[in-house]
Amino acid sequence: MLPPKELARLADALSDNLSTERLDLEGCGVQDEGCRALAALLRANKRIEDLDLQLNQISDAGVAHLAAVLPHTGLRALRLADNSVSAAGAAWLMDAATEQRLLSGRIAQIYGLSDEIMAPLRLRQAEQLRRAAQSAGTSGVSGAVPAAAPLETSAIDAPHRKGRAADAADSDAIVID
After folding, report:
1. pLDDT in tens, 136-170
2. Which CATH number fits the domain that encloses residue 87?
3. Phi-psi region of 31 (alpha: psi -120 to 50; beta: other; left: phi over 0)
């Protein structure tokens, strides 16, 4: 378990770190309160592309902090299996990922939430991105969907992870057990 005060100190220390791209906090007791510190970290440090928050007792309250900053981060993968995220929290994340795509051309993949919840949200997201692309193409407005970035859709699957041995060998990863 990583106490909230220690998580805040870790987030502060990593806020200007230029080498960490993956942060594995699986099972560290982050909870909703810790998501506030992680949201501040993700907003400050756009180099973090992969955040593993599986098994952390995170509910929609914690997801709200992450969704609020997601469009302005470099996050490419968010792992949330075995938390208490409802359909509403999943929708907030998908909307934030869609906004991230429209702002930067990148889109965070959300892993570990049930397909029953995510399937209709993926369809809605694909339709929103299609409309944005059409609007950008017909109205002459540039920047809605950057041309250089290929259109991606959010992937939802069972917890998608590298093994612990691969984690340890990854020099740009921080794994906290």
Report:
1. 875 444 444 443 333 333 333 333 333 443 444 44
2. 3.80.10.10
3. left
